Amino acid sequence: MFPDGSGPAADPAGSHFERRIRSFQPRRSRVTTGQADVLRRLWPSWGLDIDGRRVLDLGALFDGLPVVLEIGFGMGEATARMAADDPGTGILAADVHTPGQGNLLRLAERAGLTNVRVANGDAIILLREMLVPAALDGIRVYFPDPWPKTRHHKRRLIQPEFLDLAAPRLKPGAVLHCATDWEPYAEQMLDVLTAHPAFENTAPDGGYAPRPDFRPLTRFEGQGLDKGHAVQDVIFRRVDDGAPGE
Length: 246
What we know:
This protein is an alpha/beta fold and 246 residues long. It contains 8 helices and 8 strands, in the order αβαβαβαβαβαβαβαβ. The protein has an 8-stranded mixed β-sheet with strand order 1-4-3-2-5-6-8-7, sandwiched between helices. α4 (98-111) links the parallel β3 and β4. α1 (33-46) crosses α4 (98-111) and α3 runs parallel beside α4. The protein starts with 32 loop residues before the first helix and ends in an 8-residue tail after the last strand.
C-alpha cells in the first residue's frame, strides 16, 4: 500500500526478532482515501516503523520534550486531545491499526500539533530494542484488548514480563497509567502491578485511581458506560530503586 517507505510498513520488524504471542491483531483494511493521503504526506516526518534495528533519539524526535509512550490509541481522538491540552509533553503513539494511524496524523495536522509521533508495530519490540534505559516519562495503556476467554489471557499486555521490560525504560517517578472497562482485566492489572517491586500505587488506599482530568472520556468509553461497564484507572509510579537500567 505504501511502497518505498512512503507510509507504515505492513510488517516492520519482519523475521528479525523471535515471534511471541501477540497481544494485538494487525489491521490495514478500510483505509480511506484521506487517511492514505495524510499517511503518504506526513509519515516521513511524523511516523516511524518499529523495526527493532535502531535506537531512537527521543530528544531529537521531540525537540527535548519529556516523552510519554501510548500503547494502542484506536482512532486517535483521545491522543490528539491530550497532545493539544499538554503541548509540553511529547506523545509517542504506538499502534498497528493503519486507519487509526492515518486518522491521528490527520487530527494532529488539523490542530497544528507538533508533539505527536506515530509508531507502527509491536510496542514490545519498541521497548526492548529501540529505547534506552530511563527514556520515558510515562506509559499509557488505555482500553487494551481484554482477551476475555481464559485460554487467551496469556495474550493480555499487562503481565509481569511486560512490567519487567517497561520498568527500566521509565525514569524514576514516571507513571504507568492503565484503564479498562473489563473488570477481570482491571483486577489483573492491579494485582500484577502491586506485586512488582519497581512500581508503587499512586492511590492512597492501594486500589483503583479516580479518572484524571487529562484522560479524555472517549466515545468507546462512553459506550461501555452506557452498557453498565465500570471503567477503572490503574495508576502506578516507577520507584527510584537506584537501578541503572539494562
